Amino acid sequence: MAKGVARVATVLAAVPFSSEFSAGDLAGLSLMMENGEYMSMGTIIEKGTTLAGDELQFYVVLSGVAETPSDNGKTWEELGEGKSVEETALFSDEVATYECRAKNPVEVVRMSKRTFQTPSKGHQQ
């Protein structure tokens, strides 16, 4: 469970995937997420990672900056607070085609497809 539910819910409100969710749904989603911390240059997503064993997950940056480097070593994209990566991992059976690493110390919340697709208590049909 992610620490700081209100903080995580606020950040999730800015993520395109969850920006239309109600405050209650954002709080519920926050409770389903786990915290992760990465040191500078730590790998967040390794190229070729699959959904097997919940390795490929949906990540949202809470603090710090993550980057996706290109094959020639230059930064393709920087991801700061409120930016997400791999939300498609919640819906598809894809393989990561790029790497994502911490540019400096990064705090994220993350969720696997299995967790996302398992109905929580009170929301079961």
Walkthrough of the structure:
The chain has 3 helices and 8 strands. The model is unreliable at 121-125 (pLDDT under 50). It is 18% helix and 29% strand. It has helices at 5-12, 23-32, 113-117, and strands spanning 34-38, 43-45, 57-63, 66-69, 75-79, 84-85, 100-102, 106-112. α1 (5-12) crosses α2. The chain has a domain at 36-117: Jelly Rolls (Sandwich). The strands form 2 sheets. A 4-stranded antiparallel β-sheet has the order 1-8-3-6. A 4-stranded antiparallel β-sheet has the order 2-7-4-5, with no helix packed on it. The protein is an alpha+beta fold and 125 residues long.
Task: For the structure shown, list the relevant keywords.
disordered C terminus, Jelly Rolls, alpha+beta, 4-stranded antiparallel β-sheet, 18% helix, 125 residues, single chain, 3 helices
Q: Short summary of the structure?
A:
By secondary structure, the protein is α+β, with helices and mostly antiparallel strands. The protein has helices at 5-12, 23-32, 113-117; strands at residues 34-38, 43-45, 57-63, 66-69, 75-79, 84-85, 100-102, 106-112. It has a domain at 36-117: Jelly Rolls.
Write the CATH architecture name of the domain at 36-117.
Answer: Sandwich
What's the number of extended β-strand segments? 8
Shape: globular
The stretches of 5 or more residues where confidence is low (pLDDT under 50) are: 121-125
**Beta-strand share of residues:** 25-35%
Radius of gyration: 14 Å
Structural class: alpha+beta
The largest pleated sheet is described as: 4 strands, antiparallel
- CATH topology-level name of the domain at 36-117: Jelly Rolls
Tally of helical runs: 3
Work out the oligomeric state of the chains in this entry. Answer: single chain
Roughly what percent helix? 10-25%
CATH homologous superfamily of the domain at 36-117? Jelly Rolls
Q: N- to C-terminal separation?
A: 23 Å
Instruction: Report the top-level CATH class of the domain at 36-117.
Output: Mainly Beta
Strand order of the largest sheet: 1-8-3-6
From N to C, what is the helix and strand string?
Answer: HHEEEEEEEEH
The overall pLDDT, averaged over residues, is 83
